[in-house]
Design brief:
Helices cover 43% and strands 16% of the residues. It has 368 residues and is an alpha+beta fold. A hairpin with a 7-residue loop joins β6 (298-303) and β7 (311-313). The chain crosses the membrane at residues 6-28, 142-160, 166-189, 201-223, 321-342.
């Protein structure tokens, strides 16, 4: 059985595994959140104030009210009898409560740390409904992440087998680069409107769009160059129709004058097929040091995966360096343009700022 015959079964089984993992992870996370919802509400616990009685759940024993100067009320059970009440109004002031940092504060500080250097927290919060500490919640999250990874991998395999590897790369390039360029332009426009200083919004947007175009060209050339250097370029069979020993190409200068340029070496004309579509080659240089072909021969070559689909004949060890050089220049230029498009303009100093700076300089120089 070939891979093409097994591929439909792999896709069906893979998506079944994705659905099972996603459903299981979602169920575990839902159960963890449901159990965490029964946790009591959020309570704000404040530290005990210094000198205050510790909180407890038992009510203090109640005593019967008594008048000043009267007999003491009978003592409740398990309590020492009270002393006779003093005659008249009390004159002594109540003892003050200890303040924070007082030596009599309760030793709640960590061991090894002086009490004077320890400060209690202001508030402590007891979280409500936090399922992240539940092992079921973490397991469900892991299952969902695994389902996403397997689903993306199967989708990539399916699309790559349907449209081809380089067709898939073209789709990814367009889907990723175009949103990035649009987002870059929108971000630049928003920043220019917020600042409203030196640079105008249209200038910044045009700069960002130009940088995005340079990035697209640079990525295109980079992929083509790496395809030639890493032997990932598409192989082609070229049918030779003509062999020329040197060619003459004509061009016109800015004055409209016609000029001719002679290019020595062997040049080949021919055609090849890609997915049953015919493509022609005109005056393509033949590699130096190899015997030239004859008319009617079929020679091997390679074709760049992305536009402009440059073709080279085998063997061509230097193929791809031109594309890599163009890619480096365009990516560097795009980075420079993007930097100046997104850079915040410096604030201009007005007359008040200049006078203030002059006054500071005059003071530092001692008034001289």
């Amino acid at each position: 059985m070939t891979f093409d015959e097994v591929l439909p079964a792999i896709i069906v089984i893979g998506f079944g595994i994705v659905i099972a993992l996603g459903a299981g992870g979602s169920a575990l996370r839902r159960r963890a959140r449901r159990d965490a919802a029964h946790v009591p509400g959020i309570q704000e616990v404040r530290p005990q104030e210094w000198g205050a009685a510790p909180p407890h759940q038992f009510a203090a024993p109640q005593q019967q009210a008594q008048k000043w100067g009267g007999p003491a009320a009978p003592a409740p059970q398990h309590q020492a009898p009270l002393q006779p009440a003093p005659q008249g109004w009390p004159t002594a002031a109540p003892a003050p409560l200890p303040q924070p940092g007082h030596p009599t504060q309760p030793p709640h500080h960590p061991p090894g740390l002086p009490a004077s250097q320890w400060q209690p927290p202001e508030t402590a919060t007891v979280a409500e409904g936090d399922p992240s500490s539940d092992p079921r919640y973490r397991t469900g999250t892991t299952l969902q992440v695994l389902a996403w990874i397997i689903g993306i991998a199967i989708s990539v395999l399916w699309i790559a087998e349907s449209v081809g590897f380089w067709g898939f790369m073209t789709i990814v390039l367009m889907v990723v680069v175009v949103p990035i360029v649009i987002g870059l332009a929108v971000t630049t426009l928003a920043r220019a409107r917020r600042e409203n200083k030196k640079a105008s919004a249209p200038g910044r947007v045009l700069g960002a769009l130009f940088a995005g175009c340079l990035f697209v060209v640079g990525l295109d050339m980079l992929i083509n160059g790496l395809a030639f250097q890493l032997n990932f370029a598409q192989p082609i069979d070229v049918h030779v129709t003509a062999v020329k020993d040197g060619v003459v190409k004509s061009s016109r200068n800015h004055r409209g004058q016609r000029r001719s340029h002679h290019y020595p070496g062997i040049h080949v004309d021919g055609y090849y097929f890609v997915e049953e579509e015919q493509h022609r080659i005109t005056e393509q240089p033949w590699p130096d040091g190899t015997p030239p072909p004859q008319r009617g021969d079929v020679v091997t070559g390679r074709r760049a995966p992305l536009l402009p689909h440059r073709e080279v004949f085998e063997p061509s060890p230097d193929a791809g360096w031109l594309e890599l050089g163009i890619a480096g220049g365009t990516l560097a230029g795009g980075g420079v343009v993007l930097y100046f498009a997104l850079r915040r303009p410096r604030k201009e100093n007005d007359g008040a700022d200049l006078s203030t700076a002059d006054a500071v300089t005059y003071t530092q120089n001692g008034g001289s």
